[in-house]
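Lab notes, practical 5.
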Amino acid sequence: MRATHHRLTRHAGRRRALAAGLLAATLALTSACTGSGDDKPSSWQGSGESAPKAAATITEPKADATDVPASTGITFTTKDAKETSVELTDASGKAVEGELAADGKSWLPAGALEYGEKYTATVTATGDDGKPATATSAFTVMAKPDKQVRITSFLGDNQVVGVGMPLIVRFGRAIPEDYRDDVQRRMTVTTTPTQAGIWHWSSPTEVRYRPKEFWQSGTTVSYRVQAGGLPMGDGWYGRSDLTVDVKIGPSLVMQVDNKTKRMTVTRDGKVVKTILVSLGKKTTPSSSGTMVVIEKLRKTVFDTLAELGPEEGYRTKIDYAQRLTWGGEFIHAAPWSEGKQGRVNVSHGCVNVSMADGKWLFENTRIGDPITVKGTERKLQNGNGWTDWNMSWDDYVKGSAVPYEEPAATPSPEATPGDEAPSVEPTP
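Output from the prediction step:
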């Protein structure tokens, strides 16, 4: 996990998209619109020659603008341009690295601009006559704000997680609804191989990402939050950027059927083990739904005396515990119920397995491995754990702050059959 002090920006206008796309200094574009307003249009000096056919206008930041957010991008329009290039330089003339947005109409610095510094943006459009036309905009970045929002990731660099693991980003302050689309458009997920996915706001301070189906085994995932200097409402700004690289491990999926009192474990689509279980008794039923392993505890103590009192409560040492819900449902070894496992439910809501099976599961599972329980008296409550997979895809998409668009697969022309190019998911 890399948190930098090179803060990102967003252009000054509200609710404008600056999704990061392909790194570009020059990109061939077919344009359709022209700029308007007080911005200076493209200029060209010639001696007796005709003016260039192409034209360019920088729409943001405005020329001579001050107090520009450090996250600002360069938005522009072109006319009759076959080729367009964007350059941003600091006061010393040093070029700033950046990326052209997927729509070809904006450009985003690779990191946040320096607070209080002056920059000059130059957009050059060249038509089929080969004559360039340029537009420039000089502006000054705002002073460093006092109110900054911390951005963190649950996962750290180089972790290997299960196929059901959601990407989880947290903010140190609630993000107002009308700012979430701007934030989400600065959140990019790149996967190899390509897999469709989307961000979902689970709360004002937390946003998660999951693919449409479980992650493919062996997938490499890189996600970035370009939030340094980004306005986040009420005078607050993102503190820094965040980039995390993780890998998806083997596909290990657990399915529990209350009717048969058995767990079926598959690895990469093949059944590798069937385990006898005892679920929650009728007064404390297990939850039916799809959960994932949240944490793993080799040894722990379950203590419910304060919650349930001396008559119903208990304090018990537990081996091989794997948390599934915030409410206290686990998979764990329960040697005291081994005679009941596979026949009758006696637990307080947990998935009881034998000591040997608990050890085997503990040694073979990872954080993020999914488990589906079916046929019990209680339905899993969304939010009680990482319940991202307990929601239909359509319902999950509704939690996005920007419209979802199915990404197009872009296999490399040189790729052999079966190979897929990396995907860059704009942050739906």
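Observations recorded by the TA: The chain has four helices and 32 strands. The two ends are 22 Å apart (CA to CA).
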